[in-house]
User: Which sequence fits this backbone?
């Protein structure tokens, strides 16, 4: 099959060569399964180096599970999770968070993918009323599903609100590296130091093969999480191969270099297409995604050559994602093709 690179999703990209090397490097001899191995120990130490010694971290396979398990650890079934009405947990996880936690998700309006404190405040009601679910978690996605990035002060404000009201702040960090890179912050500064309680740490969209983690900044919240992970079918028997990927990502700033690269390419793409008459960039390009309203006819033409998703059919908005391996030439060729497709549509 001829290799191609598309703009459909950062998880359409392959595995970073350094990560593949890391997997191969632990493929020697036998080692104990289920995470009781030296490679997993070493990956956990790396997480502690980034986030602090007093965290708990649990390795899982995918982002949906990281979210479901995080939320499960923070809730009982009579609780509710407040999230954006476009949050991945609400729209794209097939109801897994509801099924797994038994909790109601309360979807609220967003602005450019971001929750606002006003909307969260409005959803926080029915407290102490036995007829109502009890809001327990605010979940934000960083960077957002629309490729925007919460400012540190915005995250802090959510954390303050949560903690004043006996709630927790969960961050779906499927693309936390892109957000931290965009903000010029370390992983710790972009999460723990802003008051996040539990983080779904993403690796797959940043060049791993299928490796994510749940990071608890308050160890007490992780009580019994070992059992939840197993019940949630996310305890890998050959965990060393997942741990090795996360270790590679957290070594020599690979997480940062890959995320910066993807973000840079998205900005390049935005610059290359924003002056095309007929195209409108609909959200600020703050990480590795570009969302563009584009004539329907042009979408059909472009999709004949490039695979990507139409994000919003009604408004004819396309989503183009860049990855650690998107090249400058990829962008130039794609932008030229888009320009021509719009001109002739
Ligand atoms: C914001 C966000 N959270 C979570 C996920 C879930 O990841 P997975 O597909 O690995 O379950 C995705 C994947 O697209 C995502 O975009």
Assistant:
């Amino acid at each position: 099959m001829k290799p191609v690179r598309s703009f459909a999703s950062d998880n359409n990209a392959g595995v970073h060569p350094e990560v593949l090397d890391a997997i191969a490097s632990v493929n020697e001899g036998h080692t104990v399964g289920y995470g009781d191995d030296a490679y997993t120990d070493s990956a956990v130490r790396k997480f502690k180096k980034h986030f602090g010694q007093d965290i708990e971290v649990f390795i899982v396979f995918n982002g949906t599970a990281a979210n479901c398990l995080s939320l499960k650890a923070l809730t009982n079934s009579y609780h509710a999770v407040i999230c954006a009405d476009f949050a991945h947990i609400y729209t794209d996880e097939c109801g897994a968070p509801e099924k797994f936690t038994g909790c109601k998700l309360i979807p609220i309006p967003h602005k450019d993918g971001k929750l606002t404190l006003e909307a969260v405040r409005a959803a926080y009601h029915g407290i102490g009323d036995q007829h109502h679910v009890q809001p327990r978690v605010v979940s934000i996605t960083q960077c957002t599903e629309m490729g925007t990035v919460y400012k540190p002060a915005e995250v802090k404000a959510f954390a303050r609100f949560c903690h004043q009201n006996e709630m927790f702040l969960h961050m779906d960090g499927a693309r936390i590296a892109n957000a931290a890179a965009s903000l010029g912050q370390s992983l710790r500064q972009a999460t723990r130091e802003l008051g996040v309680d539990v983080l779904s740490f993403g690796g797959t969209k940043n060049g791993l093969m299928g490796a994510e983690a749940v990071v608890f900044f308050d160890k007490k919240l992780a009580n019994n999480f070992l059992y939840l992970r197993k019940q949630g079918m996310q305890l890998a028997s050959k965990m060393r191969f997942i741990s090795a990927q996360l270790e590679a990502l957290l070594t020599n700033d690979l997480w940062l270099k890959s995320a910066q690269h993807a973000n840079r390419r998205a900005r390049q793409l935005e610059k290359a297409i924003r002056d095309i008459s007929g195209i409108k960039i609909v959200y600020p390009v703050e990480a590795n995604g570009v969302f563009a309203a584009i004539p329907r006819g042009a979408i059909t033409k472009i999709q004949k050559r490039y695979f990507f998703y139409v994000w919003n059919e009604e408004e004819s908005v396309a989503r183009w994602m860049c990855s650690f391996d998107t090249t400058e030439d990829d962008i130039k060729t794609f932008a030229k093709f888009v320009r021509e497709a719009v001109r002739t549509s």
About this structure: The CA atoms of residues 132 and 329 lie 55 Å apart.
